[in-house]
Amino acid sequence: MSSTTCGHLDTVDATAEPSAPGCEDCLAAGGRWVHLRMCSGCGHVGCCDSSPGKHATAHHRGTGHPLVRSYEPGEEWFWCYPDELLFELPDAPPAPSHP
Q1: Mean pLDDT (whole number) for 52-70
Q2: Fold of 9-87
Q3: What is the pTM of this model?
Protein backbone atom coordinates (compact mmCIF):
# COMPACT_ATOMS: atom_id res chain seq x y z
CA MET A 1 0.00 0.00 0.00
CA SER A 2 1.32 3.41 -0.94
CA SER A 3 1.45 6.39 1.41
CA THR A 4 1.88 10.09 0.73
CA THR A 5 4.60 10.67 3.35
CA CYS A 6 7.82 8.75 3.83
CA GLY A 7 8.10 7.47 7.38
CA HIS A 8 11.80 6.60 7.07
CA LEU A 9 13.56 9.96 6.81
CA ASP A 10 15.29 9.27 10.13
CA THR A 11 17.36 6.59 8.35
CA VAL A 12 19.09 9.07 6.01
CA ASP A 13 22.80 9.37 6.76
CA ALA A 14 23.84 12.72 5.29
CA THR A 15 27.49 11.71 5.67
CA ALA A 16 27.19 8.47 3.66
CA GLU A 17 29.69 8.35 0.82
CA PRO A 18 29.14 6.37 -2.40
CA SER A 19 30.62 2.89 -2.11
CA ALA A 20 31.80 2.75 -5.74
CA PRO A 21 31.84 4.81 -8.96
CA GLY A 22 29.26 2.39 -10.44
CA CYS A 23 27.11 -0.50 -9.29
CA GLU A 24 29.29 -2.18 -6.68
CA ASP A 25 27.90 -5.66 -7.44
CA CYS A 26 28.02 -5.30 -11.24
CA LEU A 27 31.60 -4.04 -11.07
CA ALA A 28 32.59 -7.08 -8.97
CA ALA A 29 30.85 -9.52 -11.33
CA GLY A 30 31.67 -7.79 -14.61
CA GLY A 31 28.01 -6.93 -15.19
CA ARG A 32 26.32 -3.89 -16.73
CA TRP A 33 23.73 -1.45 -15.45
CA VAL A 34 21.19 1.04 -16.81
CA HIS A 35 20.88 3.61 -13.99
CA LEU A 36 22.43 3.88 -10.54
CA ARG A 37 20.95 4.35 -7.05
CA MET A 38 22.75 5.09 -3.78
CA CYS A 39 21.52 3.76 -0.44
CA SER A 40 20.74 6.71 1.82
CA GLY A 41 21.62 4.67 4.89
CA CYS A 42 25.09 3.36 4.03
CA GLY A 43 26.13 4.65 0.61
CA HIS A 44 25.95 1.32 -1.25
CA VAL A 45 25.73 2.02 -5.00
CA GLY A 46 23.49 -0.41 -6.85
CA CYS A 47 21.78 -0.61 -10.21
CA CYS A 48 18.11 0.14 -10.87
CA ASP A 49 15.33 -2.36 -11.53
CA SER A 50 15.70 -1.79 -15.30
CA SER A 51 19.19 -3.29 -14.99
CA PRO A 52 19.68 -7.07 -15.19
CA GLY A 53 21.03 -7.34 -11.62
CA LYS A 54 18.52 -5.06 -9.84
CA HIS A 55 21.19 -4.65 -7.16
CA ALA A 56 19.73 -1.56 -5.44
CA THR A 57 16.52 -3.46 -4.65
CA ALA A 58 18.55 -6.55 -3.68
CA HIS A 59 20.52 -4.37 -1.24
CA HIS A 60 17.26 -3.09 0.28
CA ARG A 61 15.91 -6.63 0.67
CA GLY A 62 19.16 -7.90 2.16
CA THR A 63 19.72 -5.05 4.62
CA GLY A 64 16.29 -3.52 5.23
CA HIS A 65 17.69 -0.08 4.38
CA PRO A 66 14.51 1.70 3.21
CA LEU A 67 15.72 4.66 1.10
CA VAL A 68 17.77 5.15 -2.03
CA ARG A 69 18.42 8.29 -3.97
CA SER A 70 19.32 8.66 -7.60
CA TYR A 71 23.04 8.47 -8.31
CA GLU A 72 22.53 10.00 -11.76
CA PRO A 73 23.81 13.48 -12.65
CA GLY A 74 21.15 16.17 -12.23
CA GLU A 75 18.63 13.94 -10.42
CA GLU A 76 17.67 14.83 -6.84
CA TRP A 77 14.92 12.31 -6.01
CA PHE A 78 14.62 9.63 -3.32
CA TRP A 79 12.69 6.33 -3.40
CA CYS A 80 11.25 4.76 -0.25
CA TYR A 81 10.83 1.01 -0.72
CA PRO A 82 8.45 0.33 2.21
CA ASP A 83 6.19 3.31 1.42
CA GLU A 84 6.53 2.94 -2.37
CA LEU A 85 7.07 6.66 -2.60
CA LEU A 86 9.17 8.82 -4.94
CA PHE A 87 9.97 12.25 -3.49
CA GLU A 88 12.45 15.12 -3.27
CA LEU A 89 13.64 16.88 -0.12
CA PRO A 90 13.95 20.64 -0.60
CA ASP A 91 16.58 20.97 2.15
CA ALA A 92 18.64 17.90 1.19
CA PRO A 93 22.29 18.39 0.31
CA PRO A 94 22.99 18.02 -3.42
CA ALA A 95 22.88 14.44 -4.57
CA PRO A 96 26.19 12.77 -5.34
CA SER A 97 26.42 11.29 -8.82
CA HIS A 98 28.70 8.93 -10.64
CA PRO A 99 31.59 10.33 -12.64
Answers
A1: 97
A2: Herpes Virus-1 (3.30.40)
A3: 0.91
